[in-house]
Every structure is written in C-alpha cells, then in structure tokens.
Amino acid sequence: MDPPPHIAMAAESVTAMAAISSSSHAPAPEHASTIQELEEQLAEMHLLVQDHKRRITALTHQNTDLTQHTAQLEQQNADLTHRNADLTQHRAELEQQNADLTQQNTTLAQQNTTLTQEKTVRDRRLVDQQTRFDRLSKQAYMRIRQLVVERDAREVEVDVLRGVVGGS
Q: What is the pTM of this model?
C-alpha cells in the first residue's frame, strides 16, 4: 500500500532537493539551513513511511487472520445450516409419527369404547341370566320341596292304606 499523498510529495521534494544539493559540490550558505530543514523533514518522513509500512504489515496480518476466521465462520455456518436441515427433517418425521400415533390412539380409544359398551351389555345379560337362574332355581327348589312333601304324604297314605289292607 502506498503512503498518503502528502508524505509521498514531501519525500519527492526532499529527494529532489537532495539531488540538487549533491550535484553542486558545496551548498550555498543561504540554502544550507533550508537543506538542513529538508533533510530533517526527510528523516521524519522516512520514519513516518516506516511506521506506515509497519502498520500496513500489521493490518495485512490482521486482514489475513480475519479472512481465515471468516472462512472458519462460513464453514461453521454451512455445517450448522446442514445440521438445521437434518433436524428440520427429523422434526417433520417425528411430527408425522406423532400424527400417526395420535390417529392410532384415537382408533384404539374408539375400539375401547365399543368393547366397554359390549362388556356392559354382556354384564347386564349375565346379571339378568343370573337373576333368572336364581329365580328358576328357587322355583325348582320350591317345586322339588313341594313334590317331596307330596311324595312323603303319598308314602304315608300308602303306608296307611297298606296298614288298612294288611290289618283288615
């Protein structure tokens, strides 16, 4: 990078004056102080040029470092973008699975409701059948008792009749 224009112009002036003064063997006394001032300015300008070169070198290194860091950040960004795409796809798959499972859950809940209703109907039938069985069992027991009592009474009658027939 070139030094700023005012430094370049001053350096050229000093160089031109130095060339003029070196071409004549001895500077004129009236020019001696001007030459001295110009040489001092030249030395200052030379120091400024060196300082600017150091700064330019430092900025060039910093720019190189920043360029490398930018490249690293761009790679990280690309990696994260890829990862984000993978995660977005995985999320979509999980949402689809969730939707499928929700549908299955709804279907199973409906089946469970149907089976619960069927069980309730069967339980009512079973209670009704048990009640009917208990009623019929009670009627049968009562009828059997009645028949036993009637049989016992007939046996007594038969025994009585046998005793009348046998005893007469």
A: 0.46
Q: pLDDT tens for residues 29-62?
A: 677 788 889 999 999 999 999 999 999 999 999 9
Write the CB contacts of 35 (distance below 8 Å, at least 6 apart in sequence): 17, 21, 27
Separation between Cα atoms, residue 31 and residue 151, nearest integer Å: 169
* Residue-wise pLDDT tens digits, 106-134: 999 999 999 999 999 999 999 999 999 99
Q: Contact at 8 Å (CB) between 33 and 60?
A: no
> What would the two tokens of residue 97 be?
């699975």
Q: DSSP assignment of 19-72, as one string? A: HHHHHSSS--HHHHHHHHHHHHHHHHHHHHHHHHHHHHHHHHHHHHHHHHHHHH
Please report, for residues 118, 126, 137, 138, the alpha-carbon distance to residue 130 in angstroms, rounded to integers and kept in the order given: 18, 6, 10, 12
